[in-house]
Write a structure and sequence with these properties.
Number of domains: 2
Number of strands: 0
Number of helices: 12
Largest sheet: none
Order of helices and strands: HHHHHHHHHHHH
Helix content: over 70%
Radius of gyration: 25 Å
Length: 376
């Protein structure tokens, strides 16, 4: 009896198939590791691209609206970008004026709360915890935080050099954002025509899907962060705790790291309430933070994110851990949108294949999708 072609003598077909998949997965893993290594080596050049992508996604719709009002492309891009910077600067200035002293008190307040919690664990809690265990845990925690901060800088040195290079990266990001808003449509059409004709429809659909996913993620994270930040600030104020405004801002920013960010912000809010208003206030804040997070996760998030973030919580956690391990805090921030875009783009590619993968008759659709990308 002849053996099936492609199978070695004496090797079970299942083992043969597993081996075939294994070496392919190893090649894919090596390619991903190489790409991550290259990104880490050119981190300063990579940051402007990230800034450009996020700002362009936020400002594409306003810039397109201004162009529809007969403004030249250059003036529309400059107006959208400068207007956004002025609005952001005004908000940050207002928050800084209203809570200039509170922000400087946030760190010491959390430190006092941690000290109170440690004292309770050692002296009054029913758990068998001694001071040596607490001290060792604090040392390890400080070391891990320091490692994460150093990893966030990638290959950058430290101190003034880091600040200078990050500032330069942000300035370059703003410049590239201006040109993306001004000439993005022309670049998209040029890039599309560099592809083989039979691949243009698929590339256009994938680009449009990635654009929609990124927009849905940014809008969803901002809205949920606003809801959670207001809820935490109002609760801290009602229970008589301090630092309500800084904690609202921290909670808003933490929403851009799904699941983990909300937990960290909630813990910080409880510690602030414990240090400034006592144990009862801390319990109230903990209950409110838990209820708000559950409401957001189970009710608001599916509606706000839509299909942009249809990821299992385990996938989100693993993505954040992987991004943090590779690139520190910045990697944790970027991990979820990157995974969400990849998953949705893969799903769109599968839908395209199931539909037959034909580009025939889709010329008008191509133009419409490219216009949607440019208009946000």
């Amino acid at each position: 009896m002849d053996r099936p072609a492609g199978h070695d003598v004496g090797v079970h077909p299942v083992i043969d198939r597993l081996a075939a998949y294994s070496w392919r997965l190893l090649v894919i893993a090596a390619a991903l590791a190489g790409a991550l290594w290259v990104a880490g080596q050119i981190w300063v050049a990579f940051v402007p691209l990230v800034v450009t992508l996020f700002l362009t996604r936020i400002l594409a719709a306003p810039a397109a609206w201004l162009r529809r009002k007969r403004l030249p492309a250059t003036l529309a891009a400059a107006t959208a970008l400068v207007g956004f910077l002025l609005l952001l600067g005004g908000i940050l200035t207002g928050i800084g004026v209203a809570a200039a002293n509170e922000f400087s008190d946030l760190g010491p307040t959390v430190g006092r709360a941690v000290d109170d919690l440690e004292r309770w664990l050692v002296e009054d809690s029913p758990f068998d915890v001694d001071r040596a265990d607490i001290d060792r845990f604090r040392r390890e925690g400080s070391q891990r935080i320091g490692d994460a901060l150093r990893a966030s800088g990638g290959a950058l040195a430290s101190g003034a050099a880091v600040a200078a290079e990050v500032t330069l990266a942000l300035v370059l990001g703003l410049i590239v954002t201006f040109f993306a808003l001004k000439d993005g449509d022309r670049f998209l059409h040029w890039a599309r025509h560099q592809l083989p004709e039979d691949r243009r429809e698929l590339a256009t659909r994938l680009a449009a899907q990635a654009w929609r996913t990124l927009g849905g993620y940014l809008r969803g994270a901002a809205l949920l962060g606003l809801v959670e930040g207001v809820a935490i600030a109002v609760t801290l104020t009602l229970v008589g705790a301090e630092l309500a405004l800084p904690m609202a801002l921290v909670t808003f920013l933490a929403a851009f790291v799904p699941l983990v960010g909300a937990i960290v912000a909630g813990v910080l809010a409880v510690l602030v309430a414990l240090a400034t208003a006592g144990g009862t206030a801390a319990i109230v804040v903990a209950v409110v933070a838990f209820v708000v997070q559950q409401l957001d996760n189970d009710v608001l998030a599916p509606v706000v994110y839509g299909r942009a973030l249809e990821l299992h919580p385990v996938v989100i956690l693993l993505a954040i851990l992987a991004g943090g391990s590779a690139f520190g805090l910045v990697g944790s921030f970027l991990a979820v949108p990157v995974v969400a875009v990849a998953v949705n783009v893969a799903a769109e590619a599968r839908r395209y294949r199931r539909a037959g993968g034909s580009a025939a008759g889709h010329g008008a659709d191509d133009a419409e999708r490219l216009g949607a990308i440019g208009d946000g």
